[in-house]
Amino acid sequence: MSRKKRLQKKAEKGRKAEQKKQAYATKIASKTTKAKRKKTKRTLVEGKIYIKSTFNNTLITVTDLEGNVISSSSAGREGFKGSKKSTSYAGSRAASSAIAKALGMGMQKAHVFVQGVGTGREAAIRSVAQGGLDIASIKDITPIPHNGPRPRKSRRV
């Protein structure tokens, strides 16, 4: 390939790159000029609180009656690490932080659904009651097998 052709190719590449830059700039400019919609503040009176208490952690999820998540928290998110996540105190702290946001949205009445057998379960329910929410019902939704698969062999210590 002659030197002249190489220089022509190089110049063509430069022009294409310049066109791409201009196209990108116009695209960005059109995005920034769009009017932003104002977020509407949702208010709710009644909702559901799901407390999942495992042996290692406690998870709290607050939803509206349709199941849309409003706030969630866990013992790990509250700053507890390792074996401290499984304590009842960590469960109560997680519940109170999740409920604080729901109270800010105007929630007054709650249906509580508890799942699992961890230690933070009772403390989380107590924390919900002390948080100022009116508890309409408490339901245990822990899955119980009806003689399902064969269990693992027992641990020898």
Low-confidence stretches: none
Radius of gyration: 28 Å
What count of helical segments does DSSP give? 3
Largest sheet: 5 strands, mixed
What strand order characterises the main sheet?
3-2-1-4-5
Q: Average the pLDDT over all residues and give the rounded result.
A: 89
CATH architecture of one domain: 2-Layer Sandwich
Strands, count: 5
| N-to-C series of helices and strands | HEEEHEHE
Instruction: Assign an overall shape.
Output: elongated
CATH homologous superfamily placement of one domain: Ribosomal protein S11/S14
Could you explain the architecture of this structure?
This protein has a domain at 46-140: Nucleotidyltransferase, domain 5 (2-Layer Sandwich). Helix content is 37%, strand content 23%. The mean pLDDT is 89. 25% of the residues are buried. With 157 residues, it is of the alpha/beta class.
Characteristic terms for this protein:
alpha/beta, 3 helices, 5 strands, single chain, 37% helix, 157 residues
Offer a quick outline of the entry:
With 157 residues, this protein is of the alpha/beta class. 37% of the residues lie in helices and 23% in strands. The chain has a domain at 46-140: Nucleotidyltransferase, domain 5 (2-Layer Sandwich), CATH 3.30.420.80.
